[in-house]
Every structure is written in C-alpha cells, then in structure tokens.
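Researcher: Structure for this, please.
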Amino acid sequence: MDVQFFDRQDEKNPHNGSTISQRYQLLEVVSQLQDRAPFFCELIGKNGYKILLGIGGVTGCVQYSKDDGNPPYLMAASRHQERSEKYVEFLTGGTLSPIPSRYCLPIDTVKDIAAFFQMTGERSPIVSWEEV
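Model: Predicted structure, token format:
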C-alpha cells in the first residue's frame, strides 16, 4: 500500500508529502532521520488509517489511529517492558511531547511496525497495543 510521509517537526524535510510504495524506501527514509533530536513523523495510508512514528536515535514509538483524528489512539507497547514513571520527549511543531517509556521501543522494532503498516495498512502483531 502506498503511504504518504510527513515530518511533523521539520516542514522543510524534502520527503514531506512524498508517496512511499516500497519497504526499502520507507526503511531508507527512517534510517536517514535517526540522527536528529527525537521527533514525530506520520505515515498516512489510503485505507483511512495512519501511524505516528517517534524517531529518536536507537529508540522510537508508534501510535496507530484513524486518519480523521478521531479515537481510538493505540500505542505500541513492548510485551516485555515493565511500567516506569520515566518519559522520552519527542518534538512536534517545536513542542516537546512526553511519551511514557513503556511505549518506547528499539528503533528496529519501530521500523518493522512501520514496514508492516506500509505493506498491510494494519497494526503489527509483534507488539501489544494499548488505547491512550
């Protein structure tokens, strides 16, 4: 499935608005962005759903929701991570958004979830999903 990419922190990102139709393209874009300060970007599918990706070096997060902004909002969570009071902050529109550390995943897992969404438009089964 084709997805549209939007960087929610850097409007000047040359990938903004681009259509990604191949897994390797998606993985290449995410890999290119890993060295920035933690930030959010979106992949919007043609099926009425989107994922919000937090990308921050070796860690990230993923939220799955309808593309019209209505709930539910589902966050990917590790099946093995214990609950913690710690947060990781991701930038969106110049504002820091704190994400509970239980929703932070290894960047390779984030890439796998994004690739699964790009391929199917669905939530990946490799993590659990919690409504927020």
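Researcher: Any notable elements?
Model: The chain has a mean pLDDT of 94. The chain is about 20% helix and 40% strand.
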